[in-house]
Write a structure and sequence with these properties.
The complex is a heterodimer of chains A (146) and B (394).
Chain A lengths: L11 E2 L8 H8 L3 E6 L5 E2 L14 E6 L2 E10 L15 E6 L5 E6 L13 E9 L6 E8 L1
Antiparallel strand pairs in A: 2-3, 2-4, 5-6, 5-8, 6-7, 8-9
Chain B lengths: L9 E8 L3 E2 L7 H16 L8 E4 L7 H8 L6 E4 L8 H13 L6 E8 L14 E2 L14 H16 L3 H15 L14 H6 L2 E4 L2 E2 L7 E11 H4 L7 E9 L22 H9 L8 E4 L4 H10 L8 H4 L2 H4 L13 H4 L6 H12 L11 E6 L6 E7 L5
Parallel strand pairs in B: 3-4, 3-5, 11-12
Antiparallel strand pairs in B: 1-9, 1-10, 2-9, 5-9, 7-8, 10-13, 12-13
Helix pairs in contact in B: 5-9
The chains are: A mainly beta (146), B alpha+beta (394).
């Protein structure tokens, strides 16, 4: 039984040559959820940018946050678009908004029965999904109903 | 300052399309398809391809302008232009960019075109992603959010939720497109009729709201339109379709990463549509011809609402086949079959159909044919819109 929500063989995340998202991915390896907070104006920002979109400060901090949010939207793909998903069947992706952090949103899978009802507005919490044997290792952030 | 507008300054004088194919079935290469479409558009306008002096395209078209200019023996290249952004968001924008070049005297005869043979390169509906992904993709692909349908579906889910719009409204859009394709000899889905039962029984691509028939095709083909100054268009072979307005863009941070655009459940026409109507000095009620890019029917729904063509509270009642077909419908939609049923020519087939409608030569001809609106590429950023008109609208 796999410890992963989706089959192995899907594209793996990389922070890329510019390193913009590296603090996020380093954080998930440690079981921490991190997003940007502007030291200039205090705005929460996600996804990562080099500049604060509100005050244009380049002084962006990364802060550990609580992985608690609510389902803003969802989808249940049935048709596999990647060979790793052939024969897998339906799965659920959710868009989660985090009210405590300026309503920034994160994308992940909703753990559990892929055919479960997905109520918009339902509370969810983050669950870390480590891929320790990948090269390089990485950890995804998934969500489950609370 | 002189009047800063495109209104009435340019016109589409020629249109050209290749045979449209299901992906993988074109016997000709993508670049050859581009040449075929451009030569046909020139023939339609009565202009020699040597006279073209500019190229405008979008969607990262692989047939680049300078190479086309060389192949066609263009005497002097004056305008070579690519619209940023993915999907068909640039379809109207490319016509607008061509018009801007012509209106300002940068060039005199610009072709706006799209060549796309998905069977020869990557299919949009399959992920060709590498083993590792970065940027925005790193936050989406590992969760199985990869294809355009998957990247946009959650916008549609939320919009339908917020406004109480039902699947049947999307079905009405699909039925109208398939209906119009049945008379169109160049429609890939001609001969493949669609009714309510077949739609309802079709498999889920993505639940909710994306049955098979809510999703565009994947095709091979090319299409082109010739843009010239309005004065010149009057003297050419065909009745001119004047460019009355064009706009492109996105609303506040609509390209924000990881689905963090403030106005999430949107086709992103909310700010753009009023600008386009203002430039044209026309209103939604003036649009007898309505062509809306279908990547997915939910995108059409949001585009129609954000262009003021349908009120959200009226969508369930209004978006039925009977309203949207040429025969007696109050708002005929995608009268050649569109991306769903004619060809996914990245929306340029919608511009070409608008020109035919204004000329009065469409297969499914509408009666109120003086003004057409085309809406391109809902949900991406930038999107673009175009209003074309007959001489009566000038």
């Amino acid at each position: 039984m796999s410890n992963f929500y989706l089959p192995e063989g899907l594209p793996t995340p990389s922070s890329g040559p510019d390193g913009l998202a590296a603090p996020y991915w380093e954080g998930t390896r440690l079981g921490k959820l991190r997003i940007q907070k502007c030291r200039g104006c205090g705005a929460w920002q996600w996804g990562p940018e080099w500049i604060c979109h509100r005050c244009h400060s380049f002084d962006l901090d990364w802060q550990d946050i609580q992985g608690k949010g609510r389902i803003y939207s969802y989808e249940r793909p049935h048709h596999p678009v990647h060979t790793a998903l052939n024969g897998h069947g339906a799965y659920i992706a959710v868009l989660v908004e985090l009210p405590a952090y300026g309503n920034i949103r994160m994308v992940g899978n909703l753990l559990g029965d892929p055919h479960q009802d997905v109520p918009i507005g339902a509370e969810v919490e983050a669950v870390f999904e480590p891929h320790d044997t990948a090269n390089p290792p990485y950890t995804l952030v998934q969500w489950r109903r609370v | 300052m002189a009047d800063r507008t495109l209104r009435g300054k340019t016109a589409i004088a020629g249109i050209g399309e290749t045979i449209y194919y299901k992906h993988g079935q074109s016997p000709d290469s993508e670049f050859k398809l581009a040449l075929q479409a451009i030569v046909k558009a020139c023939e339609d306008a009565g202009i020699s391809p040597h006279e073209i002096d500019g190229f405008a395209s979008y969607g990262n078209d692989r047939s680049d302008g300078p190479r086309l200019a060389a192949a066609l023996g263009v005497k002097e290249l004056k305008f070579s232009n690519m619209f940023w952004g993915g999907g068909g968001g640039g379809v109207c924008g490319a016509v607008g960019n061509a018009s801007a070049a012509v209106a300002t005297g940068m060039a005199d005869c610009v072709v706006a075109f799209r060549s796309l043979a998905q069977g020869q390169y990557a299919r949009y509906g399959r992920s060709g992603a590498a083993a590792a992904v970065m940027g925005d993709d790193a936050f989406l692909f590992p969760y199985g959010v990869m294809s355009p349908a998957q990247r946009f579906a959650m916008k549609i889910t939320r919009f339908m939720h917020d406004h109480g719009i039902k699947q049947e409204a999307l079905r009405g859009i699909a039925l109208a497109c398939y209906h119009h394709a049945q008379n169109n000899p160049n429609a890939v889905m001609r001969g493949r009729t669609l009714d309510e039962e077949k739609y309802d029984a079709s498999r889920w691509i993505i639940e909710p709201f994306h049955h098979l028939y809510d999703c565009c095709q994947e095709n091979d083909g090319a299409a082109a339109v010739i843009v010239v100054p309005a004065d010149r268009a009057k003297d050419l072979a065909k009745k001119p379709a004047y460019v009355m307005a064009c706009g492109q863009g996105g609303d506040h941070r609509s390209a924000a990463p990881v689905h963090n655009m403030p106005n999430y459940p949107s086709s992103h026409f909310g700010k753009l549509a009023p600008r386009v109507y203002a430039m044209a000095k026309m209103a939604p009620t003036d649009m007898g011809i309505v062509q809306c890019y279908e990547n997915f029917t939910g995108g059409v729904l949001m585009s129609l609402i954000e262009h003021g063509l349908v009120a959200p509270e009226a969508a369930n009642e209004f978006l039925v086949k009977e309203t949207l077909i040429v025969e007696g419908g109050r708002m005929p939609l995608n009268t050649s079959g569109g991306n769903l049923a004619e060809c996914y020519m990245h929306g340029l087939e919608l511009v070409i159909e608008s020109v035919r409608q204004i000329r009065g030569t469409a297969i499914n001809q509408v009666k109120n044919n003086d003004a057409a609106i085309v809406m391109g590429g809902p949900m991406v950023t930038p999107v673009s819109s175009l209003i074309l008109g007959s001489e009566a609208t000038l």
